[in-house]
Design a protein that fits this description.
Distance between the termini: 69 Å
Number of helices: 2
Structural class: mainly alpha
Helix content: 40-55%
Strand content: under 5%
Radius of gyration: 29 Å
Shape: elongated
Oligomer: single chain
Order of helices and strands: HH
């Protein structure tokens, strides 16, 4: 009885019927993506303004800013600051890693205005 794990005949080789396999090197090349400067500018604006609003909201909540006018505005500043800061920091993070060509990061991950 023949061993089923052993190949039948070692002299039998693969014969290519055609030289062209249907693929070209150009299929696997990716085009260089332009840097979306407007989206990065918006992300920077969101990051800075959101950080300022977060800092103001936290200072109001912990009692460093004690003016009567500002006392009711702590929570809205924290909420709006978070809404602006989180996406801004995320897109700046992606832009930084894409600029320095880290694997898996590309400027295509940043949505741009069309």
């Amino acid at each position: 009885m023949r061993n089923p794990l052993k190949p039948k005949n070692k002299s039998r080789r693969f014969a290519e019927l055609q030289e062209d396999r249907g693929f070209t090197d150009a299929q696997f090349e990716t085009a260089k993506t332009p840097i979306p400067w407007s989206a990065i500018g918006l992300a920077t604006l969101l990051f800075v303004v959101g950080g300022i609003l977060l800092a103001l909201g936290i200072l109001i909540k912990i009692g460093q800013i004690t003016s009567e006018v500002w006392l009711a505005r702590g929570t809205p500043f924290i909420v709006l600051g978070s809404i602006m800061f989180i996406p801004g920091s995320y897109h700046l993070y992606i832009a930084y890693y894409a600029y320095y060509n880290y694997p898996g990061y590309d400027f295509n991950l940043i949505p741009d205005w069309d």
